[in-house]
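2024-03-11 09:14:02 INFO receiving multi-entity request
2024-03-11 09:14:02 INFO entity count = two
2024-03-11 09:14:03 INFO echoing inputs for audit
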Amino acid sequence: NAGVTQTPKFQVLKTGQSMTLQCAQDMNHNSMYWYRQDPGMGLRLIYYSASEGTTDKGEVPNGYNVSRLNKREFSLRLESAAPSQTSVYFCASRRDRGQDGYTFGSGTRLTVV
Amino acid sequence: GENVEQHPSTLSVQEGDSAVIKCTYSDSASNYFPWYKQELGKRPQLIIDIRSNVGEKKDQRIAVTLNKTAKHFSLHITETQPEDSAVYFCAALLGNQFYFGTGTSLTVIP
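2024-03-11 09:21:47 INFO inference complete, emitting structure
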């Protein structure tokens, strides 16, 4: 079991460029999430998917899009990157039956210049 | 939505002393409260959790208490060690979504 796998680990983009962050889990979890982590602000939810085929906005969705490709994969896309999107991005999943915590991916450190 | 506040934002303790981190939440419907430890450059890792029908839970040197009436929960680390140095996050589950505190940076001084 790899758990939650996130790629890439590091990325530098120029303002206006686009990219997709990939996330896959092999734990048969129903729910998947994308967070961004900024100093002093904790973890803020961008988008989540409660089940295959559904996605919902979180606290900070502007400038992002997501796709729940299948039960395993949940991708995050930046269509036109801005310096304000410089952050560390974490994907997470959870079983969503009963009360269970997240399993996090290893994170993507994104810098937009 | 839920609002989770966490205090203090930074905490320094001498090795061997205890550390306490406190969180409050706003929505009484929140029913599950995990704590995560994040070491520098690493992913958050679940270290302990508590459900709303339990008042206290202990796992070796770590304990969590929950006061549903006051809507606050706390993380207690006893006999702290240098490897406890990290950022700790509390969270509250409301519906299908977790709401996180802003984190406490704990430094254990040898």
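2024-03-11 09:21:48 INFO post-check: Chain B is about 0% helix and 60% strand.
2024-03-11 09:21:48 INFO post-check: The mean pLDDT of chain B is 94.
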